[in-house]
Backbone:
């Protein structure tokens, strides 16, 4: 055989090999595509079948609704679930909240789950599940202590003079109510500290008050809210953990990938290892965030609150309600979630404040300080109840993880049976939505 014939045979062989490779790849693509189509068809059929039988036992029935409120929010969430990434932010909120058995009543029409109800039904739900209220009487006396600061404003004088006068008054109070020297005045000292930090913000961080200047969410956290929150929890026995860390889940909850801007933690040593127990959380955003950011942070808070409630209940602690904070620039929102019915959690926004740079309004900040003190007290109360539970369990030589089928406490058992599955929204547009919780209803 000549060299030319050999070369020709080699070339023909290479062509045949290339054709075979292409044919093989085509078959592989076809097989993979067929496999994915069958998988998706199966999921769609499962979702459709699930949607047909979704019937929750919350027994919250409104005029004009077919079925209960819990059944409606879950059925609609299941119906929209398969198109999650193509939904509007309100559609995503309907899915995320519904698949977590939660209704968030803090939104007005036409945002989030409010679109699932007419105005009358939404108002009825808000009247049934009224917003939480803090009791401020314990801190009423603080206003009179700070009154010299509030009374020193003179509208005829320029900002610089009013600011300096208020500053001197605050510094006098700071010396008089030193929480390091006298722990009994810690709450007064915090209120003085908050007013002082607000004055500092007005004078030395004016950019934070200007919408035309681009400030990040961490500008507001580092320069104001972080300082305030850390001071708030001094000597509370709780630790603040900042910066996109994972919330602690009960060991029966799988597949969680929920990161939190701030976790307020009860630390507990178990067999020489520290266990972090979340008692509250905070989510932060820049000033005037987009609807997408604000709404996603809000339903994320609801999910985080739910996981905290579930973890305490599954560990045998009677904690059914959790407060949390949402920051948007210099605005702060107080949010509560509680396990209200069998298979239905309810979220409400119950307080909001905005810090402005008008020194005339400085006395309004005492209301913010009082609300923050009440929030701290709620966190400390949850932490103390958990610690008392651990001591009781240790004394009784029992496991701290109480099984659901233990019936020596009817109230706790009823709440444990009211818990429903948790669903975590995908973190990116490329991440497929997790599967629908198997225990979404009972």
Residues:
């Amino acid at each position: 055989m000549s060299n030319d014939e050999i070369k020709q045979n080699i070339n023909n062989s290479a062509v045949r090999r290339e054709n075979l490779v292409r044919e093989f790849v085509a078959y592989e693509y076809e097989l993979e595509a067929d496999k994915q189509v069958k998988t998706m068809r199966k999921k769609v059929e499962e979702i459709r079948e699930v949607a047909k039988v979704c019937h929750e036992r919350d027994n919250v029935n409104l005029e004009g609704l077919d079925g209960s409120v819990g059944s409606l929010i879950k059925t609609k969430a299941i119906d929209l679930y398969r198109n999650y990434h193509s939904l509007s932010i309100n559609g995503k909120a309907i899915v995320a909240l519904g698949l977590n058995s939660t209704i968030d009543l803090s939104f007005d029409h036409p945002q989030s789950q409010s679109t699932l109800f007419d105005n009358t039904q939404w108002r009825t739900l808000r009247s049934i599940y009224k917003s939480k209220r803090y009791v401020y009487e314990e801190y009423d006396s603080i206003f009179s202590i700070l009154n010299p600061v509030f009374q020193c404003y003179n509208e005829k004088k320029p900002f610089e003079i009013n600011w300096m006068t208020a500053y001197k008054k605050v510094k006098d109070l700071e010396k008089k109510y030193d929480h390091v020297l006298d722990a009994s005045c810690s709450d007064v000292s915090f209120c003085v500290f908050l007013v002082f930090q607000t004055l500092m913000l007005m004078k030395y961080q004016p950019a934070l008050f200007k919408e035309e200047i681009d400030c990040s969410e961490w500008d507001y956290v580092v320069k104001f809210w972080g300082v305030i929150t850390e001071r708030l929890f001094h000597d509370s026995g709780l630790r603040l953990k900042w910066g996109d860390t994972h919330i602690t889940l009960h060991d029966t909850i799988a597949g969680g990938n929920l990161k939190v801007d701030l976790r307020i933690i009860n630390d507990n040593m178990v067999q020489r290892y520290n266990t972090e127990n979340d008692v509250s959380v905070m989510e932060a955003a820049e000033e005037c965030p987009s609807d997408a950011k604000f709404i996603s942070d809000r339903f994320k808070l609801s999910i985080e609150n739910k996981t905290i409630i579930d973890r305490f209940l599954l560990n045998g602690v009677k904690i059914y309600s959790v407060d949390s904070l949402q920051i948007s620039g210099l605005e702060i929102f107080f949010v509560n979630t509680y396990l209200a019915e069998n298979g239905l959690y309810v979220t409400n926004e119950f307080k909001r404040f905005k810090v402005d740079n008008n020194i005339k309004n400085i006395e309004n900040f005492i209301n913010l300080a009082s609300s923050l003190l009440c929030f701290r007290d709620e966190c400390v109360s949850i932490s103390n109840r958990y610690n008392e539970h651990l001591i009781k369990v240790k004394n009784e030589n029992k496991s701290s993880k109480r099984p659901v089928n233990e019936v020596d406490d009817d109230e706790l058992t009823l709440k444990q049976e009211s818990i429903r599955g948790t669903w975590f929204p995908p973190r990116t547009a490329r991440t497929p939505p997790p599967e629908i919780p198997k225990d979404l209803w009972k």
About this structure: The two ends are 80 Å apart (CA to CA). DSSP finds eleven helices and seven strands in the chain. Strands lie at 102-104, 239-246, 259-270, 273-285, 321-328, 331-341, 344-354. Residues 1-50 form one domain.
